[in-house]
Amino acid sequence: MASESETIEERLKQDYKWGFVTTVDADEAPRGLSEEIVRLISAKKQEPDWLLEWRLKSYRHWLTMKEPTWQNVKYPAINYQDIIYYSAPKQKKAGPQSLAEVDPEILKAYEKLGIPLHERERLAGVPGIAVDAVFDSVSVGTTFKNKLAKLGIVFCSFSEAVHEHPELIRKYLGSVVPYTDNYFATLNSAVFSDGSFCYVPKGVRCPMELSTYFRINAADTGQFERTLIIADEGSYVSYLEGCTAPMRDTNQLHAAVVELVALRDAQIKYSTVQNWYPGDKEGKGGIYNFVTKRGLCKGESSKVSWTQVETGSAITWKYPSCVLLGDNSQGAFYSVALANNYQQADTGTKMIHIGKNTKSTIISKGISAGHGQNTYRGLVRILKSAVNARNYSQCDSMLIGDKCGAHTFPNMDVKNSTAHIEHEAMTSKIGEDQLFYCQQRGIAQEDAVNLIVNGFCRQVFKELPMEFAVEAQKLLAVSLEGSVG
Amino acid sequence: MLEIRNLCARVEGKEILKGIDLHVKAGEVHAIMGPNGSGKSTLAHILAGKEGYEVTAGEALYEGKNLLEMDPEDRAREGVFLAFQYPVEIAGVSIAAFLKAAVNAGRKHRGQPELDAMEILSMLEDRCKFVEMNKEFLKRNVNDGFSGGEKKRNEILQMAVLEPRLAILDETDSGLDIDALRIVAGGVNKLRRPDRAMVVVTHYQRLLDYIQPDHVHVLQAGRIVKSGGPELAHELEKSGYRWLELEPKGAQSVSVR
User: Does ipTM exceed 0.95?
Assistant: First the structure.
């Protein structure tokens, strides 16, 4: 079957199509990390003293910490003095600007990425998606701000929120992920540059999807963004995050923090389609995606759900978690993680049950191909106070080929005997039999792999907003190209 | 339509087919019978292009083309269909989605426009009648949690949808109770057409009570040892495969035209 191996060769040559670099005039901090750099970042953003103090407190704490080693991923030591901690495209004036003032090169870059930085409606009568676009260290523009403001919804860059809504930032920053939380979250707390902020007032149902699109462009920079979403009593918001980076043969560090706060009866749906550059076929280059994401179900009957499709990054290391503090609150984690070529993924979730009748759901689908290593690591903790807590976990792995690996570490810590916990796990291999069955019906091998993988991921994809589910399927197909030969 | 000449094949070094000759014309139904291990399923798999078999001699021509050189998906798109003895499960993929992919792959291959979801669905709902299936069946995941009967009905449903020119039915009767057998055989009979040939591989005569073959061949130890009309199947049913073994060796190679 010479023709078949040829087509697979062809497909292998296909590049990461988001890997282009945009030429912009950038304002960069000198390489390395010190108190001066932390002060410089804060000064660039004209931050109030209390925030500078918080950064410095974080930085000093970070100096006392050791980089963790318990994770099931391997990478050479990171030289934190060789990273550029701040890079921003030069702007004509300081502070937030209107979309018309954004560098056309940047607008072109987002257009190329398929991210709409305009406020056209998708279809007549269908609202568009509000986007906050973060380019390297800064937010370059946020769409639909005025429309959302009419409903009292605040959706802007983090830097802007520090100036416009300091009371909310002061109250909630670090309230879910404290600055002492972990090595990378503490580093982020010291040097975070920008990110998105969202506040949905009492009783308001956000009428459109909100999204942040993160783009790393500059070389040798780290990206340390910080996102904070607050859903006030009885409100609802669905939030999407997308990410890409240029192809480079050095590794770049991305250490973000996301904090979600849901007050009484509020619901936050947070979806991520992570497509950072994964490195080449030999494992050279790619993003280290070391991220801390946590949602606090603060009020009674609040809900937080995380849906993630992780196809990119050389290393993905993240555990979007829920702290179920309010009685009757609910947390959910739906994940598809792909490790192809030499990618490594160590991802999962923590569900901390504190309130009564709290409920959590975990659906994790790990796909390993090539030499990829995929680890699910989860913790379900039921505290003594959590009477009648329930958890359902399902952690499935799929192997494509025989050089990859799948690992599952489900941890449980139950302190209350009224808890109901169910755990299911399954490992399957895309078998020759399945492929042949599809081929015998006329479906080409690569289409068959996509069909089988999409079936495997269906429970997670159905949690994504419709157009992103389609996008995620396509992304998975591209990321799996050449994995069966 | 199908011409097999002196086909010899090995699996893991072991000789399984030792010179098969078979000629199937459009509109004909051929039954291939034989005891376990005689090579019936191997023949079916090789014709469909399953990996793991080494063809050491001979050829198989399908509509004049060298079948053995074609990729399995191309054989399917050109109209070769295999009803599996053990249909494979695909979790999370509905029958409707699976058949949409299959139908459109074939249409694309033939240069026809692809059908949209609505067109596919109305076609599928119509074809469900062939195997007495409710259209709700289409929403179920391919063979996932199916009973033996449901799996085989699903195979015949797929045949009705893909409209092959050459259908190979591999032990379609195995694991079926009498009601399921009647439905499956009924579906197959409705699909008999002058421009379509069928090769029915079976261990038992039972299926042939429902699907009347034009020709019956007995496969034993990798060779077709006897060929005849439908009456041969009845003879086998009466005396079993053992009476063939008692015949003198010289009488074993009967090639069929």
Answer: no
